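To the wet lab folks,

You asked to see what we're planning to order before we commit. Fair enough. Below is the target structure as C-alpha cells, and below that is the sequence we designed to fit it. If anything looks off to you, flag it before the synthesis order goes out.
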C-alpha cells in the first residue's frame, strides 16, 4: 500500500519494481528499478527535522527488502539502501544511515546511525549502531558493533558469502519478474 505522509509526500516507485500488497510504503520514499519489497515490509518516511524538512528513504535498483523489514528515519534524516543489496527478513534499518552496494544484512539485524560499506555481509541477529563499517567487512552472527568496537577483530568477507549475497539478489530479481507477470494476469 502506498500512502502519503502528513507532509503530503507520496512514494515514487519505479514501474519495474514489485511491492507486495501487504507492504506499507509511506511518504518521501524512492524505490528504483527492479526492487523487490516483500510481504509485511514497512518503509516509512514521515518524520521531519527541526526545520520541518525531511530527506528521502531511497532503495536503489535491483535491491530486495524482504518479509517484515522495517525501514524508518528519525527526524527526517536520509536512509539510502544501495544497489543489489539484500535486507533479510525482519531486519530494521533506521536512519540516519546508508547501506552500500552489494551488501547483505541478515535476518533480525538492526542498523542505525551508520554507514555500511560496499560488499559487506552482516549476519543474522547483529546490531550495528554508531560505527561505520568499511567495504567488504564480514560481521559474524549475533555481533554487536558500536563506538569503541575493534573492527580489526572481524575479517573481510569470505568468497562464499559474497556468492551467497549475489544468489539472493538474483533470486529476488526473478521474484520481481514473476510477481509482476502474475499481477498482469489477474
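Sequence we intend to order:
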Amino acid at each position: 500500500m502506498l500512502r502519503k505522509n502528513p507532509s503530503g509526500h507520496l512514494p515514487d516507485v519505479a514501474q519495474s519494481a514489485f511491492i507486495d500488497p501487504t507492504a506499507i510504503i509511506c511518504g518521501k520514499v524512492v524505490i528504483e528499478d527492479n526492487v523487490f519489497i516483500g510481504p509485511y515490509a514497512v518503509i516509512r518516511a514521515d518524520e521531519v527535522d527541526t526545520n520541518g524538512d525531511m530527506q528521502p528513504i531511497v532503495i536503489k535498483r535491483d535491491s530486495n527488502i524482504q518479509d517484515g523489514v522495517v525501514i524508518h528515519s528519525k527526524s527526517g534524516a536520509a536512509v539510502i539502501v544501495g544497489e543489489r543489496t539484500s535486507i533479510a527478513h525482519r531486519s530494521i534499518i533506521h536512519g540516519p544511515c546508508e547501506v552500500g552496494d552489494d551488501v547483505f544484512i541478515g535476518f533480525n539485524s538492526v542498523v542505525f546511525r551508520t554507514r555500511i560499506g560496499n560488499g559487506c555481509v552482516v549476519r543474522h541477529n547483529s546490531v550495528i549502531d554508531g560505527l561505520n563499517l568499511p567495504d567488504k567487512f564480514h560481521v559474524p552472527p549475533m555481533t554487536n558493533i558500536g563506538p569503541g568496537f575493534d573492527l580489526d577483530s572481524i575479517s573481510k568477507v569470505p568468497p562464499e558469502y559474497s556468492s551467497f549475497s549475489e544468489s539472493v539478489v538474483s533470486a529476488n530479481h526473478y521474484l520481481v519478474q514473476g510477481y509482476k507477470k502474475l499481477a498482469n494476469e489477474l
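Structural context that might help your review: The first helix runs from residue 159 to 185. The two ends are 18 Å apart (CA to CA).

Thanks,
Computational group
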